[in-house]
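re: ur question from the group chat, yeah i did fold both. here u go
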Amino acid sequence: MSLVELIAQADERGLAASGLACLDRCMPLLGGDDEVLRPLWANLAAGGDPAGWGELLEQVRGKLGIADVVDDEDIEDEAALLARRMLAAAPAVRSAAEARIWADACSVASLQIHRLLDPAQDDASSGDALPQALNSVRAGGTAVEGRTEGMSPLVAAELRRQISVLELLAGHGAGGLRRALEVSTEGRRVLRAVVSRRARGRV
């Protein structure tokens, strides 16, 4: 099943977890520590109060110094800008309708971030054509079937992680959150290493 199909069929918890996992993996671009999103993960667990989501979200934004609207002119790095937009766009209410829009947007943004940060990225595939190309990748289900030819390693791995998170939540509900968090943590470590190498290369 393709990533687009998984998002279309996911329930409210699965959608919120999908968006949150994308944001979690991109945390190295936001300068936050590895625990800053834990309260939101806990809110998705069995017994978590959906009504408390909005307040926890505001606390996270406050810690990271990000408002619910991002001024594009303040940020020159496109990958960091996309990550900030993900957090800024997070819905204040945990509803399936709003979470689906957010999860879909986070999916594209996170894939685009990984494409931008890939060392093999070339300018010809960046810019306005990139979101359209990534949407095609998401709809094709190539990573599910093991065919990732033509995809950069970072994008292929991120696509697999996005699919894994949605499948875990679809198959196990709240019981799949722990494994979904482990998948996200692995991805965050990979991206942190990429961001670190990128920073060293700019010195």
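okk and heres the other one u asked abt
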Amino acid sequence: MRIIGGTFSGRRFSPPTSTPARPTTDIAKEGLFNILQNMMDIEGAKTCDIFGGTGSISYELASRGAADLTLIERDQGNINFIKKTAKELGIEDILHIIRGDVFKFMKQSTDQYDFIFAGPPYALQNIDDLPMLVFEKNMLAPNGIFVLEHTPRNDYQHHPHFKRMKNYGTTVFTFFTNAAE
């Protein structure tokens, strides 16, 4: 696992081999951030990484200047790794780790974020609830972007907030926006 761009570009980390997470591949992550750079200004952004896994997306966001990072993860092994890595990078003051269930967090959330990323387990039965909850709970700031990582078997092109989709083989990123009226 490596950080693709920004201040920490090229830094490598070895997540625990026992992690239940499926980290986003470097190729897919590089593609994702190339698209994001053309859609938003990450510098100073308030972000939320649900299904945080090993923290890879949050490190990339921090490296590119995000100012406030919230990460939701339930696995204690992953959380320990994220805390260790955040300390090594010197970002522990801007990274807020919440241990718990993503759906419970989303249903109770009152914050708005400029960018939300969800990289759930591909076999997640209620994956379709994620876009619904983001918009139902008003989690996305005006002009904010929500990215859902999923497999090609899911299709969100008819969602009212759908913006675009990018396919990287077995990894698909669907971009949703909360365009200001």
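fwiw on the second one: The first helix runs from residue 26 to 39. The longest strand covers residues 140-150. idk if thats what u expected
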